[in-house]
Design goal:
With 231 residues, the chain is α+β, with helices and mostly antiparallel strands. 34% of the residues lie in helices and 30% in strands. The strands form two sheets. Strands 3, 4, 5, 7, 8, 9 and 10 form a seven-stranded antiparallel sheet that branches. Strands 1-2-6 form a three-stranded antiparallel sheet. A hairpin with a 2-residue loop joins strand 3 (74-85) and strand 4 (88-93). The longest helix is centred in the first third of the chain and has 31 residues, at 16-46.
């Protein structure tokens, strides 16, 4: 036994350089993995994740739900809705709250009804969303009627087009300020407008996720949305 341990010790001493090199490589790999984890966590904290979805049904009376699943707070600056029809695309700023008929919500209240901050939330969808928070942006019915009101498309009581015009899809767009970013980013999701066998309109998400617009090229598109609003 002692002889075997002596031979082993001599072999370790003879190959000490090899062991040292393997140890250095092993430590380098460990630090590389550790740095990758730190970088991944840093990117996740800096990455916006906004979800646009429908809630409480799938017809046009469903609610448009906007959720902030980012690690940081976001500020909802503008909400746009583009209605795609056989007669062209129509877009409207729906940041201010509207009722089911597409009319702007009134800021008037009875004495003692609610504080001023809650009144502001009742009048506009603009404002901050903390991490994990969500907001109800109103029914899709109200959003479609607001686009109709701004562009005189013509819809009936069932929120369906009048005449030969056909609705194809509805796209919800967000202009967002994320964290300490100076330039706004965007998010959007498109819903196909289908009609059931009973003749009722319903929304079908075109894709399973909300597109995040945060790259340099995508931010230029978001700035174009803003410029078009001012033109």
């Amino acid at each position: 036994m002692m002889i075997w341990l002596s031979h082993l010790w001599n072999w370790i001493q003879e190959n000490a350089t090899v062991f040292s090199g393997l140890t250095s490589v092993g430590m380098l790999l460990i630090w590389g993995v550790y740095l990758q984890l730190l970088l991944h966590n840093f990117r996740m904290q800096r990455r916006p994740q906004i979800i646009i979805n429908r809630g409480h049904g799938s017809d046009v009376h469903a609610r448009c739900i906007i959720s902030n699943m980012s690690e940081q707070a976001v500020f909802i600056q503008t909400i746009l809705v583009q209605l795609e029809t056989s007669a062209g695309n129509f877009i409207s700023d729906v940041t201010d709250t509207t009722d089911e008929q597409g009319n702007l919500a009134s800021g008037e209240s009875q004495p003692g009804e609610m504080p001023e901050s809650n009144l502001l939330k009742k009048m506009t969808r603009q404002g901050p969303l903390r991490a994990g928070e969500y907001m109800d942006a109103g029914s899709f019915n109200a959003l479609i009627r607001k686009v109709d009101k701004d562009n005189s498309i013509g819809v009936n009581d069932h929120c369906q087009p009048i005449g030969d015009v056909q609705f194809k899809a509805l796209e919800v767009r967000l202009v967002i300020v994320f964290g300490a970013e100076r330039r706004p980013i965007g998010a959007r999701r498109r819903f196909k407008l289908e009609r059931s066998e009973q003749g009722e309109s319903y929304l079908e998400p075109e894709v399973l996720w909300t597109q995040q617009l945060s790259s340099r090229r995508q931010r230029r598109e978001v700035r174009r949305w803003q410029r078009n609003l001012m033109s």
